[in-house]
Design brief:
The protein is mostly helical. It is built from 7 helices and no strands. Helix content is 76%, strand content 0%.
């Protein structure tokens, strides 16, 4: 693309205000839905955790639910966004390596790459912040600071 088109996109209010919020919601959806699925079928999740040889399956289930539902909702709302996005990125990488490490199986390899892709998107959010439509931005406009969110953008 030429620089005129790039500059027009960067200065477009829709791109700079709505796109970050939409991106956060889209990234958050998989975490919230996955966490709710674990709540609905805890035995299946415990069995899956045990099947890969991880200890403390019940604790793992509870941690995953808290991270996925709590982190997903915080990300969607733009609360402590940079910190939450970084934590969800780390969670995505660890979960991918723990549960999708049979890279000789094309399906598992694709799932691993999806986890890495989610982590990449989350790292972008961690680097650039929540955007204008977020709790972090609202708190910044009110003159309050939120740990894990150095700036509203």
């Amino acid at each position: 693309m030429n620089s005129t088109i790039d500059n027009a996109a960067a200065n477009n209010a829709t791109v700079t205000t709505i796109a970050p919020a939409a991106g956060r919601v889209l990234l958050a959806a998989i975490f919230v839905i996955s966490g709710l699925g674990k709540i609905a079928a805890p035995a299946a999740t415990i069995g899956y955790i045990q099947s890969v040889g991880l200890p403390f399956a019940t604790a793992g289930l509870l941690a995953a639910i808290a991270i996925e539902v709590g982190g997903g909702l915080a990300l969607a709302l733009g609360y402590r966004t940079r910190l939450v996005a970084a934590l969800l990125a780390a969670f995505s990488i660890v979960a991918g390596l723990a549960f999708h490490n049979a890279i000789g199986d094309q399906n598992q390899f694709i799932h691993l790459l999806k986890n890495f892709a989610m982590a990449g998107g989350l790292l972008q959010v961690a680097a650039f912040g929540a955007g204008a439509f977020s709790i972090d931005s609202r708190l910044a406009r009110l003159g309050r600071t939120v740990r894990g969110s150095r700036q509203p953008a």
